[in-house]
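Handout, page 2. Input:
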Amino acid sequence: MFSHIMLGANDIDASKKFYDATLGALGAKEGRIDPYGRVIYLHGGGLLIVTKPIDGAGACAANGGTIGFAAASPEEADAWHAAGVAAGGTAIEDAPGIRDGGAMGKLYLAYLRDPAGNKLCALHRVPA
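Output:
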């Protein structure tokens, strides 16, 4: 359904450090900076681009928006969370753990905000 996700950032170096750490915990390679100064990550068929807004205004987080990253296990979600906090992210919501996802079943969730304030989640679907 999606071709890519693009997030705004005010400090590309801080965002690259954060996403290199968190996405690295999920098995992704370090992001590369393209000729436009954007950081690009390609992993598991997904494409994430982190960039300064092209209109020159400051980047801001979407109110009510969350970007979710698939984790292969609860341990991988925990590693993602720990890497993010160590790389300048902020732990938010409840501590990582299992939550009742209603019709989606049990979910292992871990939440962070990146250095630009974007809300992120690592999600592992717990087998029934």
